[in-house]
C-alpha cells in the first residue's frame, strides 16, 4: 500500500517474486476473516507436519508468521483514515 502525502508514494513496492504455478489456490478476497486465517494456519501446520520437520522449525515458522501478521495488522490500523 502507498502512504498518502509521502514523497514517492506512487511507486508500489513488490513483496516478492512469485513462481509460476506455485500456488494453485485462488487469491483471497481483500478482507480476511478469522476462520479463513485459522484455516490457512491449519493448512500450513499440516504441510509442515507432512515434511517431518523438527518441532523447533515448526515453532520458528509460526513465530515469524505471527510477527508478520501482527506487523501488517498494526500497519493497517495506523494507515486507517477514521
TrEMBL record:
Domain of life: Eukaryota
InterPro entries: Dilute_dom
Residues covered by the Dilute domain: 1-82
Region (Disordered): 1-33
UniProt name for this protein: Dilute domain-containing protein
